[in-house]
Design goal:
- By secondary structure, the chain is of the alpha/beta class.
- Helix content is 23%, strand content 18%.
- A hairpin with a 2-residue loop joins strand 28 and strand 29.
- Bound molecules: 2-acetamido-2-deoxy-beta-D-glucopyranose (12 copies).
- The site of one 2-acetamido-2-deoxy-beta-D-glucopyranose has 11 residues, from helix 8.
- It comes from Malassezia caprae.
- It holds the Pfam family Fn3-like.
- InterPro entries: Cellulose_deg_GH3, Fn3-like, GH, Glyco_hydro_3_C, Glyco_hydro_3_C_sf, Glyco_hydro_3_N, Glyco_hydro_3_N_sf, Ig-like_fold.
C-alpha cells in the first residue's frame, strides 16, 4: 500500500496512537516486580555546573525498511549500489548558492535517471516566487487550534510547491516560542509542545500527500536570532525530549522526509555535527528514516558532520550564501572516503536516505522540473510565471479569520451592526504607500498592513486586501460614513477623525524576523534597530500612544493587533473606552477580509492564543540573550519544562490573557466528562519496559491508546459558532511536571442550541514522563487528573484517573 493512502486513512482516524502498529515481538513480557518505580525528577540544567557538552554517539545508524519506508528504501538501496563515489558525493552536496533556480539545488545524476532536487523556502509558502499565495504564517494557523485547517493549509502549500516544480518545502518550523521576543517565533506554532506537535503532524501530512517533501526545522532548540551562528542552547535531557523534541517526533510519525539541523550549538556542539542529537535521538531513538539537511551555511566540517549524521549539505558551499563552490563535501567527501576517514557505507546511507525520501512521496512519477527562478524572478528565459494560486485565497481567508482571538468585547460592542460612522486609524489599516513587496523578504520600514514577519520565511504578496478596502465595501453596503487616518504619528488628525466617528478602530503592530535582517522600530524618531529578535515586546511605531489618544476622545475604540507574538497591553487594555480587542496575528494576504468578517459578525470568532500574554515582560520564564562577550554565548534553558503557560501556572503568576484564551459571540456549556482506561496494559504499564533499557527506538506500545476522554459541549447562546475545548493533564504531584500540560484540542462547530459529543484518546506516551535514570518514558506513580476547559485557565470539567 502506498504511503499516500495510509497517511490519509490514519489521519482520518484522528488517533495519534494508531500511527505506530503494535509489534511486541521484540519485547517479551518481563513482569516488573516493582511496577511503581519512583521517577526521579530531572535535574534541571541550572547554568552553574560545568560547561555542558554533548556525549559522542557513533556510528551513524543506517536507515531501515520499517513500515511505510520499506519500498522507497529498497529502491533507493538498489540505486545506490549502481552509483559511483562521485555520484554519491554529488547527490549529498548542494550545487552552490545560485547554481540552480531554487534556494537550494541538487544536481541531476544521469546514471540513475535522477533529475536533481529543488529545495525552496518555506515555511509560509513559496519564498520570492510570483503567482503564489502568501499564506497565513505558522503562528496564525496555530491560533485556529483547528487540526483540519492545519491540514488544509499544508495541502494548499504542497500543491503550490508541486505546481512550481519545487521538490522540497523547507517547513514546517517547530521551534517553540521560548522567549517571546525571539525573531522567528512567527514562523512556528506558538509556545506549547503539543500544539506545535499537532500542527507539525498535520502540515507534514498535508504537504507530503501532495507529493512534496517536507523539512521540519530547525533541529534542535534554535531559539533566538542574536548569536544565531555562535550561541549554544544548553538543556537537560528531559526538557529536550518533553518540550523541544516532541514536535520533531510528531513530524516523524507523519512520515516527514527531512529534518534540518540549525545554525546553533546544543551543549556546545554544532547542530550539524552533534552526534547525540543526530545519530542517537533522531536516527536511533526516533527511528528517523529520511535525511538531515543542513541549514544554509550551517555546516562547519566535512568528516565530523558526515560521521555525526548529516546527510545533505546546503547550499553546498562552505558558507551561506555566496556562489562559492568550495565545499566541505563534494570532492572533499570523495577524498575522505578514499583516505578512510568516512566509511563508504556512511555516504551510501546518506544517499539512500535522500533517494528514499524522493521515492516516498513518488517524485519519480512525472514530477515537474522547476519553472521559476528564485535567483532572478524577472529573467524571461527561466521564469514561466506559472500561476499556482488556484482558490487558495479561500483557505487563507478562512485561516486568517478563524485565527482571530477576540480578547475583549465590553457590553457586546461587537459584532458591529451598520454603524453610522466609522474611523480606521493607524498605518496597518491601509496599504504601504511605496508599494507591495517593496522590501525584499519584508526587511524595511514597518508601515502599512502587516502581513507577516521578515526573513527567509516571508513570501511575496500577490495581492493584499487591507482593512481599509474590506471595511469600505461594508460601508458602501451599510451606508456607513467612513474616514481614516493612516499616519501612526499624527495624533491631531487621529483625534479629529476619531472624534467624528461613533466607532474608531485602531490598527497597531509588532514585528520581528530572521537575524540577517535588521529593522528599525519606527521613523527616524527611533533608530534603535531590531536584529531579528524584537528589542522589546511593546507595540511598534508608538502604538500605545495612538490607542490612548483615540480612546481619550472616542468611547467605542476597537483595537486590532497584528503581531508576531505577545505584546504588553497594560497601558490601555483596561481603558473604559477600549471596548473590543481583536488579536489578528499575521494574516498573509487576507488581512482586511478576516478582520471585517469578525468585526461584522459574518464569522463568529473562535481563535485562541497560542501563547500567554503577560502583564509585564519579566513575568515570562525565558528571555533572548542579547548581550555577551563570549565567543560562544551560553543560552541556558534553566526554566526547564516551564515554558509559557506552564511557568505562569507553576509560579502562580496572573497573566493578562492566558494560553488558549479567546471569546466568542455565543456561549458554551461543558458537561458529562467521562474518562476511561482503554489500554491493554492497565494502570501500570511500566512493566512493558522490562528491567533493561529499551532497545533501539521507542516501543510501539507507547503510542497505543491508553485513555479515552469524552465530554459534551452545548451552544447555549444565540449564534452558531466554533468552540475549542482543550484537554489538559495534571500529573501526580511529585512527577516534576508543571501543574497542567496540554494533551489534546480541536475546534468543533456547534450550531446554537445544539450539543456536540467530543472524544479524544490519549496514548501511554501522553501520560508518561521521561525518566533520565531509566532512559525511558515511564508513568509517574500517583493520581492523574484530566482537565477539560475553554482555555488553560478556564477549566470546566475535571476527572481523576489512577
Ligand atoms: C550558562 O551555564 C554555563 C555553564 O554552567 C555558565 O558557565 C554560564 O555562565 C551560564 N550563562 C549564563 C548567561 O547564565
Ligand atoms: C546537555 O547537557 C546537559 C547538562 O549537562 C545534559 O543533561 C544533557 O544530556 C546534554 N544533552 C545533549 C543532547 O548533549
Ligand atoms: C550500514 O549498512 C552497511 C551495509 O550493509 C554496513 O556495512 C554498515 O556497517 C551499516 N552501518 C551501521 C552503523 O550499522
Ligand atoms: C569561499 O569559502 C572559503 C572558505 O570559507 C573562503 O576562504 C573564501 O574567501 C570564499 N570565497 C568567496 C569568493 O567567498
Ligand atoms: C576541500 O576543503 C578545503 C577546506 O577544508 C577547501 O580549501 C577546498 O577548496 C575544498 N575542496 C573542494 C573541491 O571544495
Ligand atoms: C581525508 O580527506 C579529508 C577531505 O579532504 C581531509 O579532511 C582529511 O584530513 C583526510 N584525512 C587523512 C587522514 O588524510
Ligand atoms: C457597559 O454597560 C454598563 C451598564 O450597562 C455601563 O455602565 C458601562 O459604561 C458600559 N461600558 C462601556 C464600555 O460601554
Ligand atoms: C469633537 O467634536 C466636538 C463636536 O463636534 C467638538 O466640539 C470638539 O472640539 C471636537 N474635539 C476634538 C478634539 O476635535
Ligand atoms: C475625514 O477626516 C479628515 C481629517 O481629519 C477631515 O478633514 C475630513 O473632513 C473628514 N471627512 C469627513 C467626510 O468627515
Ligand atoms: C523598544 O525598542 C525600541 C527599539 O526598537 C527602543 O528604542 C525602545 O526604547 C524600547 N522600549 C522599551 C520600553 O524598552
Ligand atoms: C471616553 O470617551 C469620552 C468621549 O466619548 C470622553 O469624554 C471620555 O473622557 C473618555 N474617557 C476616558 C477615560 O478617556
Ligand atoms: C459614547 O459617546 C456617544 C457620543 O459621544 C454617546 O452618545 C454615548 O452615550 C456614549 N456611550 C457611553 C457608554 O458612554
Amino acid at each position: 500500500m502506498r504511503c499516500i493512502t495510509v497517511c490519509v486513512a490514519v489521519a482520518a482516524l484522528g488517533v495519534r496512537a494508531s500511527l505506530v502498529r503494535r509489534d511486541d515481538a521484540h519485547h517479551p513480557e518481563t513482569p516488573d516486580t516493582a511496577p511503581n518505580l519512583p521517577i526521579i525528577p530531572s535535574v534541571p540544567f541550572l547554568g552553574n555546573d560545568a560547561m555542558p557538552s554533548s556525549p559522542p554517539s557513533y556510528p551513524s545508524p543506517n536507515t531501515t525498511t520499517n513500515g511505510w519506508w520499506e519500498h522507497p528504501v529498497k529502491r533507493a538501496r538498489k540505486d545506490v549500489h549502481a552509483m559511483s563515489l562521485d555520484d554519491l558525493a554529488t547527490l549529498v552536496t548542494g550545487s552552490g548558492y545560485g547554481n540552480g533556480p531554487c534556494v537550494g539545488n541538487i544536481r541531476p545524476i544521469p546514471s540513475i535517471d535522477f533529475p536533481g532536487l529543488c529545495l525552496q523556502d518555506g515555511p509560509t509558502g513559496l519564498r520570492g516566487v510570483d503567482y503564489a499565495t502568501a499564506f497565513p504564517p505558522g503562528i496564525t494557523v496555530a491560533g485556529t487550534f483547528s487540526k483540519e485547517l492545519m491540514r488544509r493549509r499544508g495541502t494548499a502549500i504542497g500543491r503550490e510547491f508541486r505546481g512550481k516544480g519545487a521538490n522540497v518545502y523547507l517547513g514546517p518550523m517547530v521551534n517553540l516560542m521560548r522567549a517571546p521576543a525571539a525573531g522567528r517565533n512567527w514562523e512556528g506554532f506558538g509556545a506549547d509542545p503539543y500544539l506545535n506537535g499537532e500542527a507539525a503532524f498535520q502540515t507534514v501530512l498535508g504537504v507530503q500527500n501532495e507529493r512534496v517533501q517536507a523539512t521540519v526545522k530547525h533541529y534542535l532548540a534554535n531559539q533566538q536570532e542574536h548569536f544565531r551562528n555562535t550561541g549554544s542552547s544548553n538543556l537537560d535531557e528531559r526538557t529536550e525530549r518533553e518540550v523541544y523534541l516532541h514536535p520533531f517526533m510528531r513530524a516523524i510519525q507523519a512520515g516527514v522526509v527531512s529534518v534540518m539541523p540549525g545554525y546553533n550549538f546544543v551543549n556546545n556542539s554544532w547542530m550539524t555535527q552533534n552526534s547525540a542529537l543526530l545519530n542517537d535521538r533522531l536516527k536511533r531513538e526516533l527511528k528517523f528514516q529520511g535525511y538531515t539537511v543542513s541549514d544554509w551555511g550551517a555546516q562547519h566540517s566535512g568528516v565530523a558532520s558526515a560521521l555525526a549524521g548529516l546527510d545533505m549539505t546546503m547550499p553546498g558551499g562552505t558558507s551561506c550564501c555566496d556562489t562559492n563552490l568550495t565545499s566541505f563535501w563534494g570532492a572533499n567527501l570523495t577524498q575522505a572516503v578514499t583516505n578512510g576517514s568516512v566509511p563508504l557505507s556512511r555516504v551510501q546511507d546518506m544517499a539512500t536516505r535522500i533517494l528514499a525520501g524522493y521515492y516516498f512521496v513518488r517524485q519519480d512519477e512525472g514530477y515537474l522540473k522547476p519553472n521559476f527562478n528564485f535567483m532572478d524572478i524577472d529573467d524571461p528565459a527561466t521564469n514561466e510565471h506559472v500561476d499556482v494560486m488556484a482558490d487558495h485565497d479561500v483557505i487563507s481567508r478562512e485561516i486568517s479569520t478563524a485565527a482571530i482571538a477576540l480578547l475583549k468585547n465590553a457590553n457586546a460592542t461587537l459584532p458591529l451592526h451598520k454603524p453610522k460612522k466609522i474611523a480606521l486609524i493607524g498605518s496597518d489599516a491601509g496599504p504601504f504607500a511605496l508599494g507591495l513587496n517593496y522590501y525584499p523578504d519584508n526587511i524595511g520600514w514597518p508601515y502599512g498592513a502587516l502581513s507577516m514577519g521578515w526573513g527567509s520565511g516571508a513570501t511575496m504578496n500577490s495581492y493584499l486586501v487591507t482593512a481599509y478596502e474590506a471595511i469600505q465595501q461594508r460601508a458602501r453596503r451599510d451606508h456607513t460614513a467612513i474616514n481614516w487616518s493612516f499616519d501612526d504619528f499624527d495624533y491631531v488628525n487621529a483625534r479629529k477623525v476619531a472624534n467624528y466617528s461613533d466607532v474608531a478602530a485602531v490598527f497597531v503592530t509588532s514585528l520581528s524576523g530572521e537575524g540577517y535582517g535588521t529593522v528599525p522600530n519606527s521613523k527616524p524618531v527611533d533608530k534603535a534597530a531590531n536584529m531579528g529578535d524584537r528589542n522589546n515586546i511593546t507595540l511598534w511605531n508608538g502604538g500605545e500612544k495612538l490607542i490612548q489618544e483615540v480612546a481619550a476622545i472616542n468611547n467605542n475604540t476597537i483595537v486590532v493587533v497584528h503581531a508576531v507574538g505577545p505584546v504588553l497591553m497594560e497601558e490601555w487594555i483596561e481603558h473604559p473606552n477600549v471596548t473590543a480587542v481583536l488579536w489578528a496575528h499575521l494574516p498573509g494576504s487576507e488581512s482586511g477580509t478576516a478582520v471585517a468578517d469578525v468585526l461584522y459578525g459574518d464569522y463568529n470568532p473562535s481563535g485562541r492564543l497560542p501563547y500567554t500574554i503577560a502583564k509585564q515582560r519579566r513575568d515570562y520564564p525565558a528571555e533572548v540573550l542579547y548581550n555577551s562577550d563570549a565567543p560562544q554565548p551560553q543560552i541556558n534553558f534553566t526554566e526547564g519544562l516551564l515554558i509559557d503557560h506552564r511557568h505562569f501556572d507553576a509560579k502562580d503568576i496572573e497573566p493578562r490573557f492566558e494560553f488558549g484564551f479567546g471569546l466568542s459571540y455565543t456561549r458554551f456549556n461543558y458537561s458529562a466528562l467521562d474518562v476511561e482506561f482503554i489500554g491493554d496494559y492497565g494502570h501500570n504499564w511500566n512493566h512493558k519496559w522490562g528491567h533493561h533499557k529499551a532497545p533501539d527506538g521507542l516501543p510501539s506500545w507507547l503510542f497505543e491508546p491508553a485513555v479515552r476522554v469524552s465530554f459534551t459541549v452545548r451552544n447555549t447562546g444565540d449564534m452558531d459558532g466554533h468552540e475549542v475545548p482543550q484537554v489538559y493533564l495534571r500529573f501526580p504531584n511529585d512527577s516534576g511536571e508543571p501543574p497542567k500540560v496540554l494533551r489534546e484540542f480541536d475546534r468543533v462547530w456547534i450550531p446554537r442550541g445544539d450539543t456536540v459529543h467530543v472524544h479524544h484518546t490519549l496514548s501511554y506516551y501522553d501520560l508518561s514522563v521521561w525518566s533520565i535514570p531509566h532512559q525511558q518514558w515511564r508513568r509517574s506513580p500517583g493520581t492523574y487528573e484530566i482537565l477539560v476547559g475553554a482555555s488553560s485557565r478556564d477549566i470546566r470539567l475535571r476527572h481523576s484517573l489512577l
